[in-house]
Amino acid sequence: MGCIAISGIPPFSGFFSNDEILAAAFAKNPVYWGLGVAGAAMTAFYMFRLYATTFLGTFRGTEDQQHHLHESPSAMTIPLIVLALLSVIGGFVGVPEILGGHHSLHQFLSSVLTTEVAHESAKNTEYLLMGISVAVAAIAIIFAINKFSKKPELEDATGFGKVLENKWYVDELYDSIIVKPNNAKGKFLKNIFEKNIIDAAVNGVGKMINYSSRQIRLIQSGLVSGYILFMVLAIIVMVLIWVNDGYIYKFFL
After folding, report:
1. Within 91-122, where are the H helices?
2. pLDDT tens across 17-31, in order?
C-alpha cells in the first residue's frame, strides 16, 4: 500500500498530492512538469524495485535464517497498519474540484498558505496530465516487478550503475579532499611540530634550569673566604651601576 501510494496511483493518497504538484508545475512551466514526471517515474521504479527484491521471488538466505523468520511485534505492526490505511484513504481529505471534491485540506490551510494566485489549466489538459503521470508510474511499476521479482539484481553493478551504487563517490571524494589531508596535517603537528618544537622548547627550559642549578649549587662550597669574595664582587658591581646609572639609563633608552 505504501509503495502504491508513493508511486502516485489513484485513489491512494500519494496520487492527489502528486497530481497537485504536477498540475501547478505545468501551469508554471511545462519543463518543470516534465522533470516532475521523470522524478515520479523514478520514484515508482525504485520503490517497486525495493519491494520486488525484498518480498517477491524465492528466499535468498540460508535455511537456518528461513527458520528464524517471524512477524514483527505489535508495537511495530499496528503503526504500520494505521499508516497503510491512511495511505489508502488519507488523500480523500484533499480531493481537487476537478475530481468532484471541495479541496477540504486547502480550505483548512488557507489561512497559512501563500496569497499568490494559483495557475489553473483547462480540465481536459489536467485530465491528460493526470493520465500521463499515472501511465508513466504504472509502466515503471510493471517494469520493476518484471525485472526484479524473479531474478533480483544481486551481482555487483558496473558502469554508471556502479557510480550510483557508490552514491556518486561522495564519501570517497570527501575522504580524499577533507579527511586524509586533515589526518596528514594532524600527524605532522603531532610527530614533528609538537615533538620537535613545542616539547623540545619545554624540555629544553627544564634541562637548562636543571643544568644551571647543578652548576650554581657549586657556589655553596662552605668556605667563608669564597662567600666574602662573592660579596666583594657584588659590591663592586653595584657601585659601578650606581656611578654609571645615567649612562646605563641612556643606553637602555
Report:
1. 104-108
2. 888 889 889 988 999
